[in-house]
Specification:
Number of helices: 10
Strand content: 15-25%
Number of strands: 13
Radius of gyration: 22 Å
Strand order of the largest sheet: 7-6-5-8-9-13-12
């Protein structure tokens, strides 16, 4: 009798639930596994080769992990943003622009969901922003999206200008505009995008969840430049002003959540290894970019979840408590 093998196909695109959802690409609970497939040994080996678990040709394997060239490119693995965009548009038939807002906000532009966005980023900034944003300050929020943090800073008494390339996000921001905030469209990072702003007029330049796109573009056709962006920020910032960058943690974001909830661990399969899955730079590349862009780093903080979040999502709480999922850099202009 020919030997047969049972396998359970339990892989899925876990980040469809959100950018900060568990990125571990398999179903954790065996009770939720589908019925196993039965196959002969030859079919099993073919499946391992097809999924790159078994590698027969190193050149073909390396080629498989190159960036996608088009939306319909299934021959190349691509990086995370390319995979996410393809999954959203072709499998779930969802607009990435709308999906991004929905996975973060329960009420677009007004209320952040009770997930890691709320328990870590929002909770941290709720305490941090009043310490750095003072009444009368002039603030520039670059890549403001639906204006949530722009409006928060305006409610603290600042004069806030939020800029974003997306008119759809800006329409949400304007619908919820707080006194002291205003919103305009700008192709941030492109030459001339901020030419309409006078030099040295802002006390604070703020960016959240946007800087990573200037290191690893969403698409090869992206024109926006990190050098242009940092040069523009330096120009419009007052000599004594601050540049604040809030980003997904460039080390721990997208790392798999493994282990029991109370004893999580992770395994790094790539760091300084483009063009793999990661869409963030190494920490040394990030710091060098800031320094070469004319900034001095004056503080760096990592963000951790509020204790109350344990009751909401125990597994996410313990992982994010041990492995921070956001980082904040404060910078000033070099003399």
């Amino acid at each position: 009798m020919e030997e047969t093998i049972k396998i359970w196909e339990i892989g899925y695109f876990s980040n469809i639930d959100g950018l900060l959802a568990d990125p571990t690409r398999f179903i954790q609970d065996p009770a939720e596994w589908p019925e196993p497939l039965t196959m002969d040994y030859a079919t099993f080996v073919s499946r391992l080769i097809e999924t790159c678990v078994l590698i027969q040709d190193d050149t073909a394997y390396e080629g498989r992990f190159q960036p996608k060239r088009t939306l319909l490119d299934y021959g190349h693995f691509g990086h995370f943003h390319q995979q996410l965009g393809q999954a959203l548009m072709l499998h779930w038939r969802r607009d990435p622009v709308d999906w991004w807002v929905e996975q973060k906000f329960s009420d677009p532009g007004k209320r952040i969901r009770d997930n890691l966005y709320g328990a870590v980023q929002d909770q941290f900034l709720k305490e941090y922003l009043p310490r750095v944003v003072k009444p009368g300050m002039r603030v520039l929020d670059l890549g403001c999206g639906p204006g949530y943090f722009s409006n928060k800073m305006a409610r603290l008494g600042a004069d806030v200008l939020g800029l974003d390339p997306s008119e759809r996000y800006l329409s949400i921001a304007r619908a919820n505009v707080a006194p002291g905030a205003r919103f305009e469209q700008a192709e941030i990072g492109k030459p001339g995008a901020l030419d309409g702003l006078a030099s040295g007029q802002f006390d604070l330049v703020f960016m959240s969840d946007a800087l990573l796109f200037y290191f690893v573009p969403e698409a090869p056709t992206q024109v926006a430049s990190l050098d242009v962006l940092l040069s523009d920020i330096r120009r419009v910032l007052k000599d004594e002003g601050r540049f604040i960058s809030v980003e997904p943690h460039y080390l721990f974001w997208l790392a798999p959540w493994l282990g029991d909830p109370e004893r999580p661990f992770t395994i790094f399969s790539e760091y300084n290894d483009p063009p793999g899955m990661r869409v963030t730079p190494t920490l040394s590349r990030l710091i060098k970019a800031f320094c070469q862009g004319g900034f001095c780093i004056t503080d760096m903080q990592e963000m951790f979840p509020a204790r109350e979040f344990e009751a909401v999502d125990r597994r996410a709480y313990y992982f994010a408590r041990r492995f921070p999922l956001w980082q904040l850099y404060e910078m000033r202009k070099k003399p």
